[in-house]
Amino acid sequence: MPRSGQTPTDDWLTPLRAGRWFADLGEPAQRALLAEARCVTLGAGDTLFRRGDACDGLYAVLDGAVRIGAVDAAGRDLLLQVLGAPHWFGEIAVIDGGARTHDVSARGECRLLQVPQAALQALLADDPLWWRHLGRLLAEKSRALLAGLEQIAALPAPQRIALRLLALAEGHGMLAPGVVQRELALNQEQLGAMLALTRQTVSETLGDFEARGWLRRGYGRIELLNADALRALADQPPKSSGRPT
């Protein structure tokens, strides 16, 4: 179960500033956002919230990773995304006042930052500029989502995988300039679930990339060794006769 506690805000500023959205807020707004924040620790597999739950605030990953998913009508567990530090999430319910849209649980032990809903509502009431700040966060997510959907629809498996690995390393464009995460906290089954690819296809493709020296696979992680080579593959124009795998 989640465990909450207070931590000095200076301990949070450095990791959070690796994210573009938070870094762009500027120090006064950063400290205002964190004024009533608290640290939440999850154990492996712990659920933070489920689809349909009431909104309890905005979250950021300080270390570790969370999985975003849902259960379909057939009872299958669907993985949509794995988020590591310093990603923020939960803004949809904050903006529209509705229920949570998906399930969020800990991939392993992780530490999160929670800005409670009451504190956010106070910020929004005191300074309407915060609506724009939250809108920018949602817009960044929307850009990444649309790019991912386009990749799934148009590209063969190797390019899809290369692009998704690069997107994860670059925080889907949400990391501060110059920040790159070369060790990714996910396995090939999770990668396949995000890209609508079979585990066998992902395993074969990653094996080929590993043989070329582009990455290294470990238990529950993928380390990127040659991002330039992955980028060169990802940027190849699709063949006119090719079809998505």
Q: How does this structure look, described?
A:
By secondary structure, the protein is of the alpha+beta class. The chain is 43% helix and 23% strand. The C terminus is likely disordered. The radius of gyration is 18 Å and the shape is globular. The strands form 3 sheets. The protein has a 5-stranded antiparallel sheet with strand order 1-2-9-4-7. The chain has a 4-stranded antiparallel sheet with strand order 3-8-5-6. One of its GO terms (molecular function) is DNA binding. This is Crp/Fnr family transcriptional regulator. Keywords: DNA-binding, Transcription, Transcription regulation.
- SSE sequence, one letter per element: EHHHEEEEEEHEEHHHEHHEEH
Strand fraction = 15-25%
Strand order, main sheet: write it out: 1-2-9-4-7
Are there runs of 5+ residues with pLDDT below 50, and where? 241-245
Taken from the alpha-carbon principal axes, the silhouette is globular
Count of separate DSSP helical elements: 10
Q: Distance between the terminal alpha carbons, to the nearest Å? A: 40 Å
What structural class do the secondary elements suggest?
Answer: alpha+beta
- Indicate the percent of residues in helices: 40-55%
Q: What Rg is obtained from the alpha carbons, in whole angstroms?
A: 18 Å
Could you give a short account of the major beta sheet? Answer: 5 strands, antiparallel
Could you tell me the mean pLDDT?
86
**Strand runs, count:** 12
Domain Cyclic nucleotide-binding: 21-124
Protein name: Crp/Fnr family transcriptional regulator
Keywords: DNA-binding, Transcription, Transcription regulation
Organism: Ideonella alba
